[in-house]
Design goal:
Elements: H1 6-11, H2 15-40, H3 47-63, H4 68-94, H5 100-114, H6 120-137
Helix pairs in contact: 2-3, 2-4, 3-4, 3-6, 4-5, 4-6
């Protein structure tokens, strides 16, 4: 039977490393999602499940955290990933980089997450579940 010693594990935590790795992973996942959305023309919400798992796993592996702050960091990085994915899809669609797309993409993402017509409910539920996956996988214990 494996018994974890939380005090010993707390001494080995690396929160600054987890912050850096979480942000880099969320940017990479957002760019991949944005490229797939632009390339296929379809908005695939299932991609966020993989992004949530990747962000949580990267924070768990590199941060070695046992505290709740690692899970909260993972959810914050996942939310950044959701907004940046829409931004990168707009940026790839128009072919050039402009920060003016950022405010529009944030408004568009918030509007589509609160729109419960058609597929908005399924999209919102999948993104919420992906956030839960990110929260759950970020800690060791």
């Amino acid at each position: 039977m494996n018994v974890f010693n939380p005090n010993n594990l707390r001494n080995k935590q690396r929160f600054p490393v987890a912050i850096a790795v979480g942000l880099v992973t969320s940017i990479v996942c957002a760019y991949i999602i944005g490229a797939i959305v632009t390339g296929t023309g379809w908005y695939l919400s299932i991609l966020y499940l993989g992004a949530g798992w990747a962000i949580g796993s990267a924070i768990r592996y590199c941060g070695r955290g046992v505290d709740i702050k690692f899970s909260i960091l993972s959810v914050v990085c996942f939310v950044i990933c959701v907004f940046l994915a829409d931004f990168f899809s707009w940026m790839n669609a128009f072919g050039f980089f402009s920060l003016s797309y950022l405010s529009f993409s944030i408004q568009d993402t918030l509007r589509s997450l609160t729109d419960f017509a058609n597929m908005g409910v399924i999209r919102t539920l999948m993104i919420a579940y992906a956030g839960y996956i990110s929260y759950y996988t970020a800690k060791i214990i």
